[in-house]
Amino acid sequence: MRPGPKVEKPDPVMSLDIAATKPHERLAAALAGDLEAVNAMIRARMASENAPRIPEVTAHLIEAGGKRLRPMLTLAAARLCGYGGPYHIHLAATVEFIHTATLLHDDVVDESDKRRGRPTANLLWDNSSSVLVGDYLFARSFQLMVETGSLRVLDILANAAATIAEGEVLQLTAARNLETTEEVYLKVVRGKTAALFSAATEVGGVIAEAGDAALRALHTYGDALGIAFQIVDDLLDYGGSTAIGKNTGDDFREGKLTLPVIRAIAAGSADERGFWQRTIARGQVSDGDLETAQAILMRHGALDSTRQDALRWAGLARAALDDLPAHDIRDMLGDLADYVVARIS
User: Fold this and answer.
1) CA–CA separation, 117 vs 242, rounded Å?
2) Nearest to 215 by CA among 232, 202, 198
3) Other CB atoms within 10 A of residue 332 CB
4) What is the pLDDT of residues 16-70, one digit of tens each?
5) Alpha-carbon gap, residue 231 to 304, rounded angstroms
6) Does residue 305 contact residue 270 with C-beta atoms inside 8 Å?
7) 60: how many CB neighbours lie within 10 A of its CB?
8) What is the DSSP track for 215-242?
9) Confidence of residue 332 (pLDDT cuts 50, 70, 90)
10) Which neighbouring-strand residues pair with 115?
11) Cα angle at 339 between 35 and 184, to 5 degrees?
């Protein structure tokens, strides 16, 4: 909890001194016992007697220092809704397995060599291992879902897994296409990122048998938080931070049409479009091109307008919490929404 009286703010982003308290760390401390149980279940379920490479590859990514944000959302939602049973642990582990599987597959598709500040699994082993271990984790995640005995949970998480795959395929087909619209971008973001955020929060409420209003609030919170989170990551690709575990400019070099680029292309001159045609559409990136791209984005206010969108989505996430019971966890979730966008303030 923040010290001192609560102060209403017109802007949803916190000042950097407040953001420095790192709400996800406060949330992790509040959920420490549950997180320990989740980690134990993850270690147990990623084991394989017949294929030792599976735990090797999985451990490389899972134990690389990720924040466990998505499983924390499941645990937080269950706690907030008064759940007292054991299956929130299964669901949190499920969410982490789905997330890890998608990362393994993404790094193969994107030909990435860095994830969470470390060499990617496909670089250390090979693409086949990454794909097949990702498939194994998806299968494990469905085993965990079934153990809860809830068809509604299975429906939500199965739909999320399908939506994530759709989002990744849509991003693949939109890559290097200068005609990509903001509408398509939002569909990609909702698919590849927000779908798992919203499923993570919603199933925590479902397992607690929360009412429909609470479940809608949890879904809305997760959806808006996930969109804000991805927009911020896309901004940081051009904003010069390596804290997100990838190299600055990765999206640019991979030809991804993120929101600031889409806006700069729409507002740009013929010469600027020629630059985007060469670098994004044809993938011909030379030394100094990233700096040129950053200058174009600044010239058209694309970075600032995208930042405002991230702030708006974070505000929608915080507002959704108003329909949930008063609770310390609810306050931490609100602060988390602020913190996500404070990275770009």
Assistant:
1) 8
2) 202
3) 23
4) 344 446 888 999 999 999 999 999 999 899 888 888 888 888 887 777 666 789 9
5) 12
6) no
7) 19
8) HHHHHHHHHHHHHHHHHHHHHHHHHT--
9) very high
10) 118
11) 95
From residue 189, alpha-carbon distances to 33, 192, 197, 226 in Å are: 32, 5, 11, 8
**Nearest Cα residue to 340 out of 263, 230, 265, 260:** 230
Please give the tally of structural domains in the chain: 1
- Does residue 192 sit within a domain? yes
| Residue 15 clears pLDDT 50, i.e. is over it | no
Token match 């939506």: residue? 163
The DSSP output letter for 322 is G
> How far is Cα 336 from Cα 73, in angstroms, rounded to an integer?
10
Residue 3 falls inside a structural domain: no
Three-state secondary structure call for residue 139: helix
For the stretch 59-73, pLDDT in tens is: 877 776 667 899 999
Rounded distance, CA 326 to CA 254, Å? 44
Residue 244 belongs to domain spanning: 16-342
pLDDT over 70, % of the chain? 89
Rounded to whole angstroms, the Cα distance separating 245 from 266 reads 30
User: What burial class does residue 334 get, using C-beta atoms within 10 Å of its C-beta: 0-12 exposed, 13-18 middle, 19+ buried?
Assistant: buried
Contact 111, 231 (CB under 8 A): no
**Identity of residue 273:** R
**What are the tens digits of pLDDT across the range 202-248?**
999 999 999 999 999 999 999 999 999 999 999 998 875 544 445 68
* 118: helix, strand or coil: strand
Q: Please indicate, yes or no, if residue 6 is contained in any of the structural domains.
A: no
pTM: 0.88
The DSSP code sequence of 291-302 is HHHHHHHHHTTH
Q: Is 2 contained in some domain?
A: no
* Structure tokens given for 29: 């401390």
- Answer left, alpha or beta for residue 301, where phi above 0 means left and psi between -120 and 50 means alpha: left
Count how many Cα atoms sit within 13 Å of the Cα of residue 333 in the half-sphere of its side chain: 35
Nearest-CA neighbor of 296 among 272, 322, 314, 317?
A: 272
Tell me what pLDDT residue 97 has. Answer: 93
**Residue 118's beta-bridge partner residues?**
115
